[in-house]
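Hey team,

Filing this mostly as a record. A colleague (T.K.) asked me to run one chain through the structure pipeline before their review meeting, and I want the input and output archived in the tracker in case anyone asks later how it was produced. No errors, nothing strange. Just documentation.

Input sequence:
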Amino acid sequence: MSHIKPLIPLLVTAGILIGGNGLQATFISLRALQEGFSASTIGLVGTGYNIGFAVGCVYVTRIMRSIGHIRTFSALAAIASAASIAMVLLIVPPFWFLMRLVQGLCFAGLFAVVESWLNARVTNSNRARTLSIYRFVDLGSVTLAQYLIPSVGIDGFQLFAIISMALSLSLVPISFADRSSPGAPEDIRFDIKTLWNISPLATIGCIVVGLTNSVFRSLGPVYAKGIGLSVTEIATFMSVGIFAGIVLQYPLGVYSDRLDRRLIILISSLGSLAACLFLSSLAGSNEWRNFAGIFVFGAFCMPLYSLCSAHANDHAAKGQHALVSAGTLFFWSVGAIVGPLFASFMLDIFGPRVLFAYMAVVLFLFMVYTLQRMMVREGVPTERRSMRFRNLLRTSTFFNKLATPPSERDGQ
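Output structure:
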């Protein structure tokens, strides 16, 4: 613990940010429903966040290089806090879209600052321990934050104020961190064509993850509300899907290191597809069936991003792993922008059950494409792989660096 102690302020800050972000995603969807927003309008508001996040990923490194970590964090936390509380002052879709766009941009920068700072401070001896704690913080904060919604209620200004307070308070622990701010990070290059040339399957896979996982996070509350779940049951529904994401990460990752990774991607997609079909046709309005279905969905679908990233790294040449990290996050953002928008229009037309039917179609097409790629390209033998599977968060390109041991790094 003596090695971890200096990192505690950064980990606490990360917990506040991740929890606040997870709370906000669910709450905004439910509050928008209460305010009479249509599903397509809620999808558009969610798309605003993802657009901002994509832009933030591209430009945050330049800001950090220009003004440093702590100034970048302070400015973005203040802007995000103001945007959160402003949403209660003017409840109209165009303004909410703009505020969510601002929040997405800010959160991309805030996560990048924290993870860049952690990466600069972590050592070989405490890297694995730090990552384990970080994942525990991620899971715990998002899960617990969901239950603030039924505890406080979605009426009034209280939850807007709590989210704004959390963002403001995130400045406190990071202010007590090591006084020596880390050096300016290297610029992150987004080379879309290079990632496609390295692995078309990984590129499409990351888009598919954006088309499915982001839809669950943005429109899952709309689905749950539409089938008649209570606010507490909606919080549980979202928490179960998020929590399930860690259940199969390790076993799927281990087998992907031993076998053709595309086979594990195929199995993960098949499990996700089965869960979507169950939710869209058999779960009905029974809360326990829906909890079971979303658990299976989260267990199989959440690891897909890490599996696709690992597959891309299998084909990457020396010095290309940083490009893979940036590229996979970019293509996930593309899917996350398009997915909620398209799915929300379908919700308006066909009702809540179409949400998982839409995801089933996307996953089926991805399975067909995966099989096609397996027939035209040989897999990379295990002895020629330069990197093992890593459980990745879609928070910033710096998380990939944090999760990669120095022995596996090539130009990252």
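Quick notes for T.K.: The chain has 18 helices and no strands. The mean pLDDT is 85.
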